[in-house]
């Protein structure tokens, strides 16, 4: 990353009219900046660079957050906003040992965990059985295309898995990440990721087979997990 | 060996999994809200940070002042003590004047304190005498001198030294030895000369004329406190003796056993008085008569050859010296460490507490948002 910028000196970049249009930024920016360039530019005080970064990743982050938070879109929005807040606050802590993309996902995963913990605490503080878990409350921002019964069923099955297996499946079958990137998010080797994914999928199959609504398995037209980014 | 891919799943399930991790809906610009929220939080925290900064600055200044005070106070205390001791010497010179006149005869004619003070006040010369702190004649000092001379003739000088003493001042030769013949002759005398009246200096000057002074050394041992203490104890014991005698006179009709007990007590007190008196006399003699050790040797005497050590002796000596100095240094180092460790225990604790608080604060201030999910 570049030297100390306006942000690093203690002033957050101000929003401007040009914030939505990265093309209006200074001539020094490369034509196709990488995520790392954008973060560096943002840390130097260029707020629209954060907008450009968000344009690339925000939808994917929202999708994963929705999956991690049991389909609650309002919680997902909160989690992603919190993720950007942490990027703004702690952007200087980014090290070039990983990519900005996996760094963002790692922050998101941690934020979602915090949201889940917070909701659990809220539920337990209200008294046992006094109110349903937050995830089970009605979504404040319902999806324009609600879950099909099958999707609800799969979501419930995933929810029943242990936390690390749930995270593994959602990361690996999320549209934004390849397996090597997912391994980088979890800071484990790809081989370890695959073996854990194998276990997690077996558990998911078992969970789904317990229910008659869904047949799943490795029978016809099976597809292997993705190795490359979509 | 490459890890095998996990068992594939059906396309339908994969589609469903993709669907539940895909954002359905309009585009958002959450980063803008995050920027605004950050700006608002920063503004709110600004005043809090300012108060914290002021508090930290105040605490730092207070800590520096405390440390400075901790360093300066002992120095000030030391300075105060030293000034007090100088003043007290002058005062003690006045206050102890009745108790410590020249010891030869002073304790036999104790003068009341008031008289001494009034005399000193009335007579400026007398007052200045008592004001002199160190070398005042009221102080009791045992003086010892050593003088080593090379003389043309040891025997002649030996005889001359003996004639320097004055019998009327009770001066005498405490010991004397004369050994060897001619150029090998050596003599050593211990003279006791009157310390008062400048006799000591006079004798030393006379000795210096006998030959070439090779070395000279003088010491003075201040025994004023000891003399004062002896005087006080003596006075106290005499007071007890007087009271016992008075009691014995007034209770002549008492039982025999009581009278015998009283006499025993009186005998014990008198014994104590005798012992103290003896100590006081000895001290007085030591003070009134200075010692001079005179060493005489002929000026053309061959100088003693330095001892030639063998290589083994030299090596042994070196090892022994090194071992001793090593042990000394080790002891001093350990003592120094213990002093620092124990003496600075409070500061160490404060330092460790400060470091712990600072580490915790830093950790809280800069959390790792991208810690590895577990």
Topology, please?
The complex is a heterodimer of chains A (230) and B (374).
Chain A: H1 35-43, H2 47-68, H3 73-90, H4 100-125, H5 149-159, H6 163-172, H7 179-186, H8 190-209
Chain B: H1 11-20, H2 30-95, H3 113-122, H4 124-131, E1 141-151, H5 154-162, E2 172-179, E3 186-194, H6 199-208, E4 212-222, H7 224-250, H8 256-288, E5 289-298, H9 311-343, H10 345-365
Helix pairs in contact in B: 3-4, 7-8
Please give a structural write-up:
The complex is a heterodimer of chains A (230) and B (374). With 230 residues, chain A is an all-alpha fold. Chain A is built from eight helices and no strands. In chain A, helix 2 crosses helix 4 and helix 7 packs across helix 8. Chain A starts with 34 loop residues before the first helix and ends in a 21-residue tail after the last helix. Mean pLDDT of chain A is 75; it is low at 1-27, 127-132 and 214-230. Chain B is α+β, with helices and mostly antiparallel strands. Helices cover 61% and strands 13% of the residues of chain B. Chain B is built from ten helices and five strands; from the N terminus they run ααααβαββαβααβαα. Chain B has helices at residues 11-20, 30-95, 113-122, 124-131, 154-162, 199-208, 224-250, 256-288, 311-343, 345-365, and strands spanning 141-151, 172-179, 186-194, 212-222, 289-298. Chain B has a five-stranded mixed β-sheet. In chain B, a hairpin with a 6-residue loop joins strand 2 (172-179) and strand 3 (186-194). In chain B, helix 3 crosses helix 4 (124-131) and helix 7 runs antiparallel to helix 8. The longest helix of chain B has 66 residues, at 30-95. Chain B starts with 10 loop residues before the first helix and ends in a 9-residue tail after the last helix. Classes of the chains: A mainly alpha (230), B alpha+beta (374). The interface between A and B is large, with 84 and 46 residues.
């Amino acid at each position: 990353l570049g030297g100390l910028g306006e942000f690093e000196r203690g002033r957050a970049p101000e929003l401007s009219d040009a914030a939505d249009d990265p093309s209006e930024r200074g001539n020094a920016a490369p034509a196709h900046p990488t995520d790392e360039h954008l973060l560096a530019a943002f840390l130097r005080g260029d707020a629209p660079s954060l907008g450009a970064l968000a344009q690339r990743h925000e939808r994917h982050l929202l999708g994963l957050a929705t999956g991690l938070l049991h389909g609650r879109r309002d919680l997902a929005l909160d989690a992603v906003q919190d993720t950007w807040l942490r990027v703004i606050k702690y952007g200087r802590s980014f090290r070039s040992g990983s990519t900005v993309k996996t760094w963002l996902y790692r922050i998101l995963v941690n934020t979602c965990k915090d949201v889940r913990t917070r909701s659990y605490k809220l539920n337990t503080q209200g008294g046992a059985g006094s109110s349903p878990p937050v995830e089970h409350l009605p979504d404040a921002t319902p999806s324009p295309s609600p879950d099909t019964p099958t999707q609800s069923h799969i979501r419930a099955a995933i929810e029943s898995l242990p936390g690390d297996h749930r995270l593994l499946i959602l990361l690996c079958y999320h549209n934004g990440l390849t397996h090597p990137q997912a391994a980088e998010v979890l800071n484990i080797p790809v081989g370890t990721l695959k073996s854990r994914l194998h276990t997690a999928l077996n558990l998911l199959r078992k969970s789904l087979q317990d229910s008659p609504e869904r047949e799943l398995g490795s029978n016809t037209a099976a597809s292997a997990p993705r190795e490359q980014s979509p | 060996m490459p890890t095998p891919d996990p068992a594939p799943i059906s396309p339908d399930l994969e589609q469903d999994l993709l669907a539940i991790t895909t954002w359905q809906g309009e585009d958002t610009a959450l980063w803008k809200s995050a920027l605004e929220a950050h700006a608002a939080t920063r503004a709110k925290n600004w005043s809090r940070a300012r108060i914290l900064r002021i508090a930290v600055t105040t605490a730092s200044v207070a800590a520096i002042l405390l440390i400075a005070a901790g360093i300066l106070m002992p120095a000030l205390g030391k300075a105060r003590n030293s000034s007090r001791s100088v003043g007290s010497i002058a005062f003690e010179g006045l206050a102890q004047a009745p108790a410590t006149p020249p010891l030869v005869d002073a304790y036999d004619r104790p003068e009341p304190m008031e008289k001494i003070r009034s005399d000193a006040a009335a007579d400026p010369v007398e007052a200045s005498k008592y004001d002199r702190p160190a070398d005042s004649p009221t102080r009791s000092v045992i003086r010892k001198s050593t003088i080593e001379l090379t003389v043309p003739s040891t025997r002649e000088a030996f005889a001359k030294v003996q004639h320097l003493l004055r019998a009327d001042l009770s001066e005498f030769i405490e010991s004397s030895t004369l050994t060897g013949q001619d150029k090998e002759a050596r003599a050593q005398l211990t003279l006791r000369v009157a310390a008062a009246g400048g006799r000591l200096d006079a004798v030393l000057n006379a000795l210096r004329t006998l030959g070439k002074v090779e070395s000279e050394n003088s010491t003075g041992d201040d025994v004023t406190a000891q003399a004062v203490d002896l005087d006080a104890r003596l006075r106290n014991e005499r007071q007890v003796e007087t009271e016992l005698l008075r009691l014995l006179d007034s209770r002549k009709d008492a039982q025999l056993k009581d009278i015998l007990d009283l006499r025993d007590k009186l005998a014990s007190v008198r014994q104590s008085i005798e012992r103290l008196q003896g100590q006081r006399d000895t001290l007085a003699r030591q003070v009134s008569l200075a010692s001079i050790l005179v060493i005489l040797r002929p000026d053309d005497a061959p100088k003693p050859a330095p001892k030639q050590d063998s290589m083994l002796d030299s090596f042994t000596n070196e090892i022994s010296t090194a071992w001793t100095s090593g042990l000394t240094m080790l002891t001093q180092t350990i003592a120094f460490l213990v002093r620092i460790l124990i003496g600075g225990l409070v500061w160490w604790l404060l330092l460790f507490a400060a470091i712990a608080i600072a580490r915790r604060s830093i950790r809280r201030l800069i959390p790792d948002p991208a810690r590895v999910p577990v």
